[in-house]
Amino acid sequence: MDLCPDLLFTQVRKALRTALAGVDARMELHGAPVTDGVRGPTRTVLDALDAADFERPRSLGGLDLGLTAGVLVSEELGRAACGNSYRADALAADMSAPAGAALAGLEALPVGSGVTAPPRAGGWALTGTATVDDVSAGTFLVATRTGTEPVLVAVEREAAGVSTESGCWPPVVRFDGTPVTAANVVGPLDGSPTGPLARARLRQAAYLLGIAEGAHQMALRYAGFRRQFGTRLRDLPAVSFPLARALVSLRATGAAVYRGAWLVDSVPEEVGTAPIVALAMASETARDVVRLSMQTCGVRAMTAELGLHRYFRLVAAESARYGDPAALWRAVGADRLRTARRAEAGTGSAAPATVGR
């Protein structure tokens, strides 16, 4: 992995950061902190930069910049505390599905199923409640299990038994015996180390990394001008040391996220559990860093003066959006045990073909 900054990605990052700075932030203390989906305010920014072409292969008219470019876009969206209007279309493109849909139900992975799909005549009947990116989307891409493996199913918003709730955060979609057939199945969400689910996990890990970085930067700025006991907060060891430790955690998490993306792009046979590790690590880092940032800024963190509450409410929903960190770590641990047992038995130490489903 080349640790030197790529000049192209540096320019893309600058362009994204400048454009996202012009997006109006929701400073209200009540209601959703961001707007996701195709109608979100970040959609205009991404379309102006042709972000949809970043990961698309050259054979399909894209720029073929790899998953690293998608990770960069997700990180900057999180840093600006903006809604993520990129991830749904990116996952849909990985599965050769149309753009413009909203993701739902991924929080139940890698174990369990938030939306069940018991068999019925000609297909399955979806039942359950799941978080969704955008309740106003015309189509929902729902993660469920039609057998032993998770799949992504396309469900129209106007289908029978579908209802949405936008008055809560995050918004949810409910299914009450919604009929689907094999034609609705977009594709499997298998545990392939370089498959659509692994790529989606790395994008989400980068989004969480960005949220943590944005909150940390806001806390640093506040601690730099707020004075207490005759000095700046940042000059007090009780404040500066935790912020310094948080910076170390951010750097380590960033290395894990970008290493995972680099492996997917350049050394796919060595990916293993890197996407799951990156997502679990980013989820825990984001929770810890945002909580520390709130404590650093005190009561002002919960007011519209700083707007740090947006990061707090955002990470509360996003840190488990693609699976609970504890479940992700268990999947990693189980894979390590399988690998060690095979090595001990003399059958080799290569990572399995599928992990963390």
Automatic annotation (TrEMBL):
Keywords: FAD, Flavoprotein
Domain Acyl-CoA dehydrogenase/oxidase C-terminal: 197-317
Entries under InterPro entries matching the protein: AcylCo_DH-like_C, AcylCo_DH/oxidase_C, AcylCoA_DH/oxidase_NM_dom_sf
Keyword Flavoprotein: yes
GO MF term set: acyl-CoA dehydrogenase activity
SUPFAM superfamilies according to UniProt: Acyl-CoA dehydrogenase C-terminal domain-like, Acyl-CoA dehydrogenase NM domain-like
Domain of life of the organism encoding this protein: Bacteria
Family: Belongs to the acyl-CoA dehydrogenase family.
Name the UniProt record assigns to this protein: Acyl-CoA dehydrogenase/oxidase C-terminal domain-containing protein
